[in-house]
Design goal:
mainly beta; flat; six-stranded mixed sheet; seven-stranded mixed beta barrel
Length: about 775
């Protein structure tokens, strides 16, 4: 005997199906009002003990089959139709799968033949499915479609030779012709995600009015507040310090200080700002959900299990590995301050992190997979073999195309409206290289819904990955595949060679990369085949590819801007015009070991970073005893480029390895450190002056003059602010040590363990400061 996979390559195949449904039964004693019952929980007075009976149905033209586990296999399946789930790239949550089985009813048999009430007369009257429908509640019971192949010697391995597709029963209904329809649904439908909210509303409320300063509040005794980190009352968020008399009529919450920032205990991130206000008895007390350095897989798992999904359907190890590969440093830090439609919150999370989620009826588990241009193909599909010849249909999906993407994030007060003005930051990414009269005349924008779930790196990664994948119009390819060649699954990335796609010279294209978004089985009298849909998957930058970055760069991560590849890569970044700024203006990021970056600066790119602030002046306090306080040290300058252990080649001027940008023209100039402050004078009782701010892209702020109390005199001069153009302290200098120390000079390039080569450097183009390349 052979398994389903072992018979896949049979040249001539005979297919059939067995439908299995599991229904609750009561074995043994079953009475109904003193008479014999019919063996189901609806028609027995005895309590159900958890027993199930599996019913088996097969095609009317199936081979002669033996009984299974002592039960007959009824030959009554007239037809099977199935609608598989379909991925919705960029939208996150896939559509749900379903199936419909048309069954021919028959007389003279009973679905519960051994039940005490099933006499010979009962067996003869009525029909099989009519009685089954009357005796059972079929909704949400387990069901399976099992796909079989007859082996070349005519044998059938009933126990091991099938591919099993898992469903839940939706309904059993009868048509006017007398046939019955058994409808199946996706397992994800079992929790009715579109009818649930998350986090769940608990019904908590205030027992007494509270003012805007009160730190002990009286709450209802029916809600369990024991694990509450924070609660929302009206528009105010209150951080819970402790709970007393929980689940009693005198329950109280002890609150930390009211108003201000609410900080996460683990990540120390500010989750929200809030303001204190008065509240009235009866006001809702909503227990907020907390995400504190939570990974995407953990949060979605929590939402699904809270909504009723069996945790056994979630392959936690696979999910964690997928998120770790594609979002290795991204964590979610927020409060969930209101109950939201479960479908909506899951879809938003998936969209924010560009992940797909769907239920696989074959694996009987929920899948989570990243959408990234770095996904590698797992197989090659050629028309005439894996793809049935002349079956390919190609349709443009213009609605998905976007050469520019934007998202607003960082909502300061989570109880504010979801309007744009409630968000403090934005991430934008555009690919200008494809915008011209010869290509796409205008940008096409993708504007994501505002979000509270992303930080800067995650938001930048979202906009970059979306544009990288969908900057060219994607195409949906639909085709047929015979079962013997079905060596791929929904969600896989594949390479396609198709007769309908040609290169510019007329040769067949063999480098089309696509993601399988749907694999739909078709059941016919002559056997099974599959309708497949695949969406063009714009391949990632390959070795030697160039990524153009135009405009100003502020604290950017090249790993993020390159789409966060999970494998070692060799990429070229073109820094075209503009300037850089930030404490660390540019960092290589978390590229895999073995990666190599080539940095080509063109059109006068001005690599700079933030300068150091000047130190404050010393203070003098004149009271019964006179005191002086020391001045402050100047602060250090920032770093222009941190290679973070990734090998890098930098081109400042002269010839480059790029065909598109053959001549380099750029600068990296380290900022300076701020000057130290001046001491107070104990004899004249005069506070000290502030130190000068340093030069850099964001100039250092001059130090504040020292202050005095009593009869003393405040310092006369605040430190002078730094300059952008180096006309003050210049670039790459230590701050002047006045009476306090000057700040350390900033750094041009830091290796952090990388091998770094510089090309075309001059004294004017490269000022290293405290970096690794004097």
């Amino acid at each position: 005997m052979a398994t389903f996979e072992a018979t896949r390559s049979q040249r001539v195949q005979q297919h059939f199906e067995i439908i299995e449904i599991d229904l609750p039964v009561i074995n043994g004693t079953c009475t109904l009002g003193g008479a014999g019952g019919y063996g189901t929980p609806l028609f027995c007075d005895q309590a159900w003990a958890g027993d199930y009976k599996t019913y088996y149905f097969t095609n009317t033209d199936a081979p002669v089959l033996p009984s299974i586990n002592g039960e007959p296999v009824w030959r009554c399946v007239k037809s099977i139709s199935e609608t598989s789930a379909k991925l919705k790239p960029g939208e996150g949550l896939a559509s749900r799968s379903s199936a419909k089985i048309t069954l021919i009813d028959f007389d003279g048999q009973d679905p519960n033949p051994t039940a005490p009430g099933v006499t010979s007369a009962v067996k003869k009257q009525g029909t099989f499915f009519g009685k089954l429908d009357a005796r059972q509640i079929l909704a949400d019971k387990a069901a399976r479609i099992k796909l079989y192949r007859v082996e070349t010697d005519g044998s059938i391995d009933i126990a091991n030779g099938a591919q099993t597709r898992h469903f839940l029963i939706d309904s059993l209904s009868r048509s006017s012709s007398g046939d019955w329809s058994l409808s199946f649904k996706d397992v994800l439908s079992s929790v009715n995600l579109d009818e649930k909210t998350w986090p769940e509303e608990t019904g908590g409320f205030l027992r007494q009015d509270i003012d805007n300063n009160q730190l002990t509040i009286e709450v209802d005794g029916d809600t369990d507040y024991s694990s509450a980190f924070a609660v929302r009352i009206g528009e105010e968020i209150l951080k819970v310090s402790s709970v007393t008399n929980n689940l009693t009529p005198t329950a109280e919450l002890v609150i930390t200080s009211r108003g201000g920032a609410v900080v996460a205990p683990t990540s120390s991130e500010v989750l929200t700002h809030t303001h204190s206000e008065e509240h009235s008895a009866g006001d809702e007390v909503f227990i907020c959900g907390l995400s504190d350095d939570e990974t995407l897989d953990d949060l979605i798992t929590r939402i699904l299990t809270d909504s009723g999904i069996d945790s056994s359907l979630i392959p936690s190890t696979d999910w964690a590995a997928e998120v770790a590969e594609w979002h290795s440093t991204d964590k979610i830090n927020t409060l969930h301050v209101e109950a939201i439609d479960t479908n909506e919150v899951i879809a938003k999370l998936l969209t924010n992190f560009l992940m797909d989620l769907w239920y696989s009826p074959v694996d009987n588990e929920i899948k989570l997979s990243a959408i990234s241009v770095w996904k590698q193909s797992t197989s090659t599909l050629a028309e005439g073999k894996e793809i049935n010849a002349h079956s390919v249909k190609k349709t443009a999906q213009e609605k998905l195309r976007a050469s520019r993407a934007m998202i607003l994030y960082d909502k300061k007060n989570l109880t504010d409206s979801d309007d744009s003005f409630s968000y403090a930051k934005a991430s934008r990414f555009s690919d200008n290289s494809i915008i011209s009269d010869a290509l796409y005349p205008k940008h096409k924008d993708k504007e994501f819904d505002n979000t509270q779930y992303l930080n800067k790196d995650a938001a930048d990664l979202l906009t970059q990955r979306y544009v990288s994948r969908f900057k060219y119009t994607p195409f949906l390819r639909e085709f047929e595949t015979d079962e013997r060649y079905l060596n791929f699954a929904m969600g896989d990335v594949v390479d396609i060679t198709s007769l309908s796609d040609q290169n510019a010279d007329g040769s067949l294209s063999n480098d089309i990369r696509a993601q399988i978004v749907s694999v739909n089985p078709k059941y016919s009298k002559s056997g099974r085949y599959y309708n497949v849909k695949a969406l063009t998957y714009e391949a990632a930058f390959t070795t030697g590819s160039e990524i153009l970055l135009t405009g100003n760069l502020g604290s950017v991560n090249l790993y993020t801007l390159g789409g966060a590849p999970s494998q070692a890569v060799d990429l070229t970044f073109i820094l075209d015009g503009g300037y850089s700024e930030g404490a660390t203006a540019i960092r290589a990021g978390n590229f895999a070991t073995g990666s190599k970056l080539t940095i080509i600066m063109v059109n006068g790119f001005d690599g700079q970073a933030n300068a150091g602030n000047g130190g404050v002046g010393g203070a003098v306090i004149v009271e019964d005893v006179t005191y002086t306080f020391p001045p402050g040290n100047g602060l250090a300058g920032g770093t222009v480029f941190d290679c973070q252990g990734v090998d890098c080649d930098f081109y400042f001027s002269g010839t480059t390895p790029s065909t598109a940008y053959p001549t380099a023209d750029g600068y990296i100039r380290a900022p300076s450190g701020g000057d130290g402050g001046f001491s107070a004078n104990l004899y004249t009782l005069t506070a000290g002056d502030g130190g000068r701010g340093a030069d850099g892209r964001t100039p250092g702020t001059g130090g504040r003059s020292g202050y005095s109390t009593g009869a003393g005199t405040t310092g006369a001069n605040n430190g002078v602010n730094g300059q952008i153009d180096g006309s003050g302290s210049g670039w790459g200098n230590d701050g002047v040590a006045n009476d306090a120390l000057g700040g350390a000079k900033g750094s041009g390039i830091i290796n952090s363990g990388a091998t770094v080569n510089l090309f075309g450097t001059t004294a004017a183009r490269y000022i290293n400061g405290n970096g690794d390349h004097p």
